[in-house]
Structures are given as structure tokens and as C-alpha cells.
Amino acid sequence: MKPAPKTFAVKSFGCQMNMYDGDRMAELMLAQGLTPAETADADLIVLNTCHIREKATEKVYSDIGRLRKDARKKHGGSPMIAVAGCVAQAEGAEIVTRAKVDIVVGPQAYHNLPDLVARAARGESALDTDMPVETKFGALPARRRVPPSAFLTVQEGCDKFCTYCVVPYTRGAEVSRGWQQIVDEAKALVDAGARELTLLGQNVNAWTDGPRGLHHLIAELDRIDGLARIRYTTSHPNDMTQGLIDAHRDIEKLMPFLHLPVQSGSNRILKSMNRSHSRDSYLRLLERVVAARPDIALSGDFIVGFPGETEADFRDTLSLVDEIGCAQAFSFKYSPRPGTPAAQMDDQIAPEEMDERLQRLQAALNRDQAAFNANTLGRRCQVLIERKGKLPGQMLGKSPWLQSIHLLTDAGIGDLVEVDIVRADPNSLSGVERISAAA
């Protein structure tokens, strides 16, 4: 048994949905009267884990040991530790047996965290890896004050079963939240200070509510007073409807940015990955998007070193990168995830070969990002101020194309300002304010 905690810390890893889940778990603890604290000082530490990266499970166990060591060194205590998220879902009771943690809770059950904390304090078993998605959202507390750019989960899970991906096993089948529940939360976020909402889902553009698709939902959110910007991520090429493409043309609040993972430029590798698109269908889809919104910034995900990938396959990926011209991108070395079909495939690629290919790929992606930023030089755009910079009077914000922008301004966090871009670096921009902050 341990004393009921009075302070807490939530440490989230991985994707934006994990960041959203981490915020909601923090709100649950606040609603129970617990006080936020630094990790080393907290009575309860929640590790909100991600299972996508290589050796994710081992890193969790290492982090647990380090946290306990830090606590003993600082105040001689032993915090209550909860493992949440996708590693918790995948490992389940094994984490309790191996690491002797107090609580294990999956990503669809964290609404039960207060009860699990109480059970752990009584010395009882506190493990929950059930997947009742709608129950989770219905049980979460009302949103408190939020940053100017906030996340809003609208869809969870995946039915695509890409051969390298663990998400269908840790997040479950595709489930869409209800229309009114999303709209109500969006309004609450705006009332709490959000000016920009990013709609989240493992396949966010697969969101449906009866005959309504994501573009209908975006059109409804467009009507919310005080909401200035709408984004969404992550999308799947199969679910990119013409209605959603047209929304980029017709809805001013929908920002000109699209993250659309492709993973490989080789049709042979795409088939082995169980990706349902081809290189050509992906490029034709992007042509339709650009035709609807010519200034849109494109982003993607790329994997190198998938089992069986030859040098010719990899060159197909490089040539696809050349054709797309990504404003941003994420690139990864393939890593086998336990239980996925790709982990059992022959022709696993040597680590040093994957390293070399990733360096070549990232050089091309960095080149294209620098070129996109350079093409922004001299443009005027609105910037949403998100936080203070390191210099006196400096603020940081995001352009419509999701670029980080530094500027000197009297505007406050949450303001929208008109800015002329006067400097373009590979990873960020600098701007000069042209008019006073918009209300």
C-alpha cells in the first residue's frame, strides 16, 4: 500500500494523440484535487507511452528505473507509477510483473485512472486495458484553460493493418466520435482560449457520422465564433475524399497544410506494406489537392529499410520525394514491432544500410523544406502567437503552412498578427509585424 497521492506529473511520448491523451489525464488528476509537480517531486508519475519506435518497451522499463532512482536520491521516496498508452496496452500485466509498477492503463481506458489510483493506494490490482472508446470520451471532465493551438481527438484506431504497424493492436478498430460530442468539445476549447484546433485521429479523414464525413465536420466547426484556424492529422490516402479536398478550397479557416503519409515510392514495397495506394495514385491525389489549393504545403511519412527493400526500391522513394517537394516530412528507419507481419518477413535490412539510406533521404527532405521556406521569403501572412521566445520582446508562432516564425511584437499569446517574412532559415522563419494584433 502507498499513501493516496497529492501531486502528479504526466510525461507523454510519441504522437500528437498521445499529447492530447496526456492533457486529458492531467485534467482528470486536477479534477481529483491533485496538484501538478515536477516529475522528480510528484507522488504519482504517469508515463504515457508510445509503441511505434524501436525498443519502445525497453525504454519504458529504463525510464521507470531512472524515475525511482531520482526519487530516492532527491527525497528518499518511492512514487506511485502508472504506465499508460500503447506500451501499456501491448504489454499489459507483464509490466506489473517485470517492473512492479502500481498502475497499467491502456489508451482507451484512461478515463478510469482516478479509480485505478485509488485501488493502487489500497494495495489492490490496478490494470485496465479494455477498449470502450466512447465510454472514455463521455467520462472525461470539462476542458480547462488551453493553449491557443489545441488538439481535439475525433477518431481513433485503424482498420488498415499495414504490415509494419502496431496501431490496430494497441488502439483498436477505427471508431469515430459522435458529431455533437466533438462540436461541444470544440466550443469548450475555444471558450477556454483556443484559436486553432487540430483534429486528431490515427486515420482522421476516415471520420464519419452517418452520411457525414470530415469535410462536413470542418464546415460545422468553421461556424464557431472565436475559432480562427482548423487543421487535421494524420490522414490516409484511401480516405482523402473529394469533399475534403474541396474544403481546402472553400473553407478559409482550414489551413493550407496536408500531412499525407506515403511511406515508400516503390509499388513493390507499398504492396508488401499492405498500403492500398500506389505511387501513381498518390501523385494523382496530390495533383487534385494542389489544384484545389495551389499554395498548400505538403507533408508525408517515409520509411526506409522495409524488409526486402532494394537499392532500386529506395531510389524510387528518392525520386518520389523529388516529385512531391515536401514542406515538412517525417522519416524513419523500419523497426520490427512484435506481432506485426513484417517482423516475420525474410530479407530484413542490415542496420548500417538503413542508416545510410535514411541519411540520403533526410538530405533530400531537408533540401525541400529549406526550399519551401525560402519561397516564403517576402510573403505576408497571419501568424498565431503561441509562446514567448528567448529574446526580450520575442514571440513565436505558426504560419498558415505550419512553419515556426520568430518576431518582435507587443502582441500576446493567442493573438493573430499580420507578418512580412524577412528571413528564411531551413527550420524556421523570421518576420516583421505589419499591423496590430487582431482581436
UniProtKB/TrEMBL annotation:
SMART domains named among the record's database cross-references: Elp3 (SM00729)
Cofactor descriptive note: Binds 2 [4Fe-4S] clusters. One cluster is coordinated with 3 cysteines and an exchangeable S-adenosyl-L-methionine.
EC number annotated for this UniProt entry: 2.8.4.3
Domain spans labelled Radical SAM core: 144-371
Pfam families associated with the record: Radical_SAM (PF04055), UPF0004 (PF00919)
Keywords assigned by UniProt, alphabetized: 4Fe-4S, Cytoplasm, Iron, Iron-sulfur, Metal-binding, S-adenosyl-L-methionine, Transferase, tRNA processing
Residues that bind [4Fe-4S] cluster 2: C158, C162, C165
Entry-linked Gene3D superfamilies: Methylthiotransferase, N-terminal domain, tm_1862 like domain
GO molecular function terms listed in the Swiss-Prot or TrEMBL record: tRNA-2-methylthio-N(6)-dimethylallyladenosine(37) synthase activity
Catalyses which reaction(s): N(6)-dimethylallyladenosine(37) in tRNA + (sulfur carrier)-SH + AH2 + 2 S-adenosyl-L-methionine = 2-methylsulfanyl-N(6)-dimethylallyladenosine(37) in tRNA + (sulfur carrier)-H + 5'-deoxyadenosine + L-methionine + A + S-adenosyl-L-homocysteine + 2 H(+)
Subcellular location: Cytoplasm
Domain TRAM positions: 374-435
Cofactor: [4Fe-4S] cluster
Binding locations of [4Fe-4S] cluster 1: C15, C50, C86
Domain MTTase N-terminal: 6-122
Oligomeric and partner information: Monomer.
Protein's job: Catalyzes the methylthiolation of N6-(dimethylallyl)adenosine (i(6)A), leading to the formation of 2-methylthio-N6-(dimethylallyl)adenosine (ms(2)i(6)A) at position 37 in tRNAs that read codons beginning with uridine.
Family: Belongs to the methylthiotransferase family. MiaB subfamily.
Protein name, per record: tRNA-2-methylthio-N(6)-dimethylallyladenosine synthase
Lineage: Bacteria, Pseudomonadati, Pseudomonadota, Alphaproteobacteria, Sphingomonadales
